[in-house]
């Protein structure tokens, strides 16, 4: 089966792109393997008109809107993209789907510190984005746990203080400089040294951080800085150029170095929130439609010339 565009990834970026392409009367298929990054979260925030909705509600609404404009949705895992006949062949669960263009919106995964109890509370009592969840835990005792993403964690320890006066920073495996200590102290952030042995939680959620020595420091929420790992294997295998940090490079519209291939959302932009990812998907969709329009015109001119008498 042939499409104008195959969108790989059915999150905010992919669905926004699919809807815009459908509204542009393009034949579009959105393929998604399931397991969205924000599935553990009960609610999403900061998305105008959808604040407080569940992630599943947002996705269901997006799929309905995609369908409304003639777009198709398929649950499948894409295992490869190959250039073919001026377009691409997308391999999805054994099927081969031909497409003139491809948009990859597969997001990223969060690699958390290896601390017992952390993953189990992820998306509930363990969070990473204060803009997404800080308001809901304002004025509560908050812990910030040092992770492998050092710059993000250090910024987070200062940022979270904006939502609560009761913030405790656990460097864990991070060695703080004198300047960093002074800056945290100036903001009233308490520092507790020592290796963290586990995140303590009960039926009502997180209750504290336990250190190797057995001491437990009470808190109701833990913020942590994950390492953001882009799910960009499909793009790398195609030969898309990468920046110095290993992320796929795109222009402002999401166009990659491979002609006919775009990328949008967290797969190329780790700090993008849902509303930014949706915006990026819409921007990419408009650029793709313009790309296809140019090709449509070239084809029409060629056909017109072939049928016009000399």
UniProtKB/TrEMBL annotation:
SUPFAM superfamilies linked to this entry: FAD/NAD(P)-binding domain
**Catalytic activity, per the record?**
[thioredoxin]-dithiol + NADP(+) = [thioredoxin]-disulfide + NADPH + H(+)
Regions that span the bilayer: 6-22
Which InterPro entries did the record assign? FAD/NAD-bd_sf (IPR036188), FAD/NAD-binding_dom (IPR023753), Ferredoxin-NADP_redctase_2 (IPR050097)
- What is this protein's record name? Thioredoxin reductase (NADPH)
Which keywords does the record carry? Flavoprotein, Membrane, Oxidoreductase, Transmembrane, Transmembrane helix
Q: Which organism is it from?
A: Halopolyspora algeriensis
A Pfam short name? Pyr_redox_2
GO MF term list? thioredoxin-disulfide reductase (NADPH) activity
Question: Domain named FAD/NAD(P)-binding: which ranges?
Answer: 3-281
Recorded coiled-coil stretches: none
